Amino acid sequence: MPLYSLDPEWEDVVPLPQDDGVQPLAQIAYTEEYTEAMSYLRAVMAKDEMSERVLKVTEDVIEMNPAHYTVWLYRAKTLFALGKDLVEEKNFLNDMALRHQKNYQIWHHRQLIMDRIDDSTGETEFTVTMFEKDCKNYHVWSYRQWLVRRFDLWDKGEIEYIDTLLEQDVRNNSAWNHRFFVVFGREETVPKDIVDREIRVCEDAIFIAPQNLSPWSYVRGVLKKANLPLSTFEKTASFYAPLDNPDKIRSSHALDILADIYAEKGEQKERALIALDFLAKKYDPIRANYWNYRAGLIKASS
Amino acid sequence: MPLAPPLFTTLPFLHDAHVTPSSRDQDATASSCVRFLSYPEDPFPVLDRAAHIAFLESGLNGDKTGKLPEYMVALDASRPWIIYWCLCGLASLGIDVRRRYRSRVVASIRPLQNSTGGFGGGNGQLSHMTATYSAILALVIVSGPPPDGTDNSEDDDEDPLDIINRLTLLRYLHSVKMDTGAFRVALSGEADVRGVYCALTIITLLRLPTTNGLLAGTREYLGRCQTYEGGFGAMPGGNEAHGGYAFCALAALCMLGEPREVLSDTLDLKTLVSWLSARQYAPEGGLSGRTNKLVDGCYSTWVGGCWALVEAALNGPQKEVPLGPAGELRPENKGVVGSLWSREGLARYILTCCQAMRGGLRDKPGKGPDFYHTCYVLLGLSGTQHYFYYVTHPAAAPSSVTSADSFSTAPEAEDLPLTSAFLWRVSPSIPSVVKGVFEPVVEDLPAWPDDVADVGVEGDRLRAQHPLFNVPFECVDVVQAWVGEKVGF
Ligand SMILES: [Zn+2]
Fold it and tell me: Where is the Prenyltransferase alpha-alpha toroid domain (chain B) (predicted)?
């Protein structure tokens, strides 16, 4: 059913058809509604018109195809030109984001809007609603990091929220990653008690699930940031991977870090090679080539 | 056919008792993959070439009505992508897409170009870096002199690449370049590593001048995208390490210089290799994009593709010597590290778990095929069958560097056209750590002879794709020849 051609509000607009060329490849069978809305949108875009009716047609197209970046960008431009109430736009975005979880464009658009609104009230709460559906959504995490930086939310409940997420799923690497951002993302030295706290957090997480890579990578990151040697973690790693009692080995990641610790200490290269050999043959054989490569580096250096 | 080794048919030796949503998903995926991997009738199924060709051709030609179904409107802003995915997949399967589709590719891409520079995802859509990237790659795949017997002779005098307006494109690139070193994906769009990778691909292939600070800060920007885990996020400052962004960042860096030099100067290579290696899981054999996420066929390209770049950085530039059966040049392979990943694991995952029954390839069992996954799963499979290396010897250096200076207004060292990408070579023989010994991708497999360059209609062999651009390897030479004849714009 034609919606635009019969609408007096659009009387003055001559729709602009799509030129796909001769015998085009990958042509899509559009619905009549999509074809019509797009042809009116192209027409107003060609005139660089920014008006209420432009907002209406962009909303229409976005509803049919939320991945249409041109429409989002043109909508943002129009909203700003008309000085529209951006809080209302935010409500529209909430609804769209919840219905289209994987969409890219919504989050960039939201960032443009929020930057103008200049008030982050309710924003972290909304990301939480999104995380309840998918706690590893890349775009939402990226947006949350922008929020923290833009609105100085570093100490406004980020660590507490991450603790809750890690309690629900200690393997949620996006939460670990966000933690690293919150703790080390500011351009300042992190005090010793915070570093100690972070190491403890890793130890606790490893205790629950030793074969979870996230805290092992995280603790390496912490030690590097704090300029501490890997051997700071030797005792913990040895507990989960006692080389002299192979039946008690419970974590390949413990073997991995031990191999690095022993390789760093010149006189214990033999033990590093034992750890790598365990990894290649028994505990992580899909990565045998990599473990053998590491062993080769150690042999070459002695 | 021997049964698959236990590595691919049994759950991992170490397994935590503590259950969370992540481990539940992981266990379910591993178990479902094991069912395919240990299928006794056919533990190593052949590539269903004909079915995949038919699937990809349906992407270009549509169904009986000549169009793609209505629900694909979600890809309406990605039409050059559909064309690129299908062409690239078909080419790796051995189809001569240049003969079959050349004039229609030109006709389809032409209306996407904007007078203000660059290409949009459809006619009348704003220019976008990823649309420009895929549109140009689609043209690259069909470029070169007109093939004999092309049915439509109208467009045949001009090279498909001639439709690109390089001058407006260069202006567009400057308009999306940021002071941070990044490139936005569109005017007022987001800036991330994808933007940089697309920009560098375009600049390199079309040999655009990099004067006036086009690449100022770009290398440093890419370096800042490396995270504490070793992989790369979409942008600096906290994004999680992710396979897709890792490929974009590494391939972009390799366009800026010799891999060993540029990667070791910009990154922490040791952590990168560790993160990359941790992306491969057993028993699945496939690759994941992030820590504690599931394997997915498309990472066969994004993560699998990183290995060639990282290994080239560890091996350093290789000398070529006439070692092939008929005296062809082959890498000397001095002190190479060999494959640091399991080519066999990935090949098994792709052939057993990613082939959809009616053609097309997919993310994992239980998912449907699509053009995106079909393209990148095939590219990943091709990657398991080829060894990519980087050469430096005078004969390999592009002869046209000097002629390119004619449109470089300030020929300072950093402003020279980017040429490193053209020093990559490919061999069907995969060297092992032991000098002079080659490793088969999969032991005892007649369909996978280890020194055959030709892709026939039988067997699983695929054509090699360029490790940085993801187009058929030889297309890059064709573009080189085309751009070498350009004087000015
Ligand atoms: Zn995928």
Answer: 47-409
Local structure of B364: helix, strand or coil: coil
Nearest to A211 among B16, B277, B345 (CB): B16
Is-contact B214 B157, C-beta < 8 A?
A: no
d(CA B133, CA B368): 26
Of B14, B61, B340, nearest to A251 by CB-CB distance is B14
Q: Which residues, in sequence order, are bridge partners of residue B431?
A: B438
Tell me how many residue pairs between chain A and chain B have CB atoms under 8 A apart.
230
Return the closest-CA partner of residue B406 out of B418, B417, B398. B417
ω before B146 within 30° of 0 (cis)? no
User: What is residue B452's predicted lDDT score, i.e. its pLDDT?
Assistant: 43
Asked if residue B256 lies in contact with residue B200, where contact means CB atoms within 8 angstroms, the answer is yes
Chain B closest CA to A7's CA: distance in Å? 23
| pLDDT score of B450 more than 60 | no
Query: Does the pLDDT value for residue B188 go beyond 50?
Result: yes
How near does any CA of chain A get to the CA of B408, in Å?
33
Give every residue of chain A whose pLDDT is below 50, as ranges: none
CA dihedral B98, B99, B103, B104 (to 10 degrees): -80
What is the Cα B155 distance to its own chain's centre?
28
Quickly list H helices, B267-412: 269-277, 299-302, 304-315, 343-353, 371-384, 401-404
- Ligand 1 centroid from CA B298, angstroms: 4
What kind and span of H or E run contains B35? helix B21-37
Q: Please indicate whether, in this complex, the C-beta atoms of A26 and B238 are within 8 angstroms of each other.
A: no
Tell me the pairing of strands B387-390 and B424-427: antiparallel
- Please state the rounded mean pLDDT for residues B141-162: 72
Residue B192 dihedral angles phi and psi, to the nearest 5°: -160, -175
Pairing mode, strands B329-331 and B183-184? unpaired
CA nearest A57: which of A79, A38, A35?
Answer: A38
Surface of A (158-217) touching B: CB under 8 A? 168-174, 176-178, 180-181, 184-185, 208-214, 217
Rounded to the nearest integer, the mean pLDDT of chain B is 89
The whole-number average pLDDT for the span B58-82 is 96
Secondary structure of residue B280 in the 3-state scheme: strand
Q: What pLDDT score was predicted for residue B460?
A: 84
- Please give, rounded to a whole number of angstroms, the shortest distance from the CA of B418 to a CA of chain A: 30
Question: Is there a contact between B332 and B321 (Cβ–Cβ < 8 Å)?
Answer: yes
Which chain B residues contact residue A115 at CB under 8 A? none
Interface mutation target, options A290, A291, A292, A301, chain B, most CBs of B under 10 Å: A290
Contacts of A213 in chain B (CB under 8 A): 278, 291-292
Angle at B378 between CA B343 and CA B82, to 5 degrees: 150
Q: What angle do CA A87, A118, B192 make, to 5 degrees?
A: 100
* B217-273 pLDDT, tens digit each: 999 999 999 999 999 999 998 999 999 999 999 999 999 999 999 999 999 999 999
Condensed to tens digits (0 to 9), the pLDDT of residues B371-404 reads 999 999 999 999 999 999 999 755 444 444 443 3
Give CA A4 to chain center in angstroms: 39
- In Å, how far are A37, A80, A123, B73 from A113, measured between CA atoms? 24, 9, 12, 26
Q: How many Å apart are CA B204 and CA B216, to the nearest integer? A: 15
Task: Check A290 against B277: CB less than 8 A apart.
Answer: yes
| pLDDT for position B156 | 56
Per-residue pLDDT reduced to its tens digit, B2-54: 778 899 999 999 999 999 999 999 999 999 999 999 987 777 888 999 999 99
Distance separating alpha carbons of residues B152 and B103, to the nearest angstrom? 6
B412 pLDDT band, cuts 50/70/90, is very low
- Distance (Å, whole) CA A287 – CA B277: 7
Is B38 in contact with A29 (CB distance < 8 Å)? no
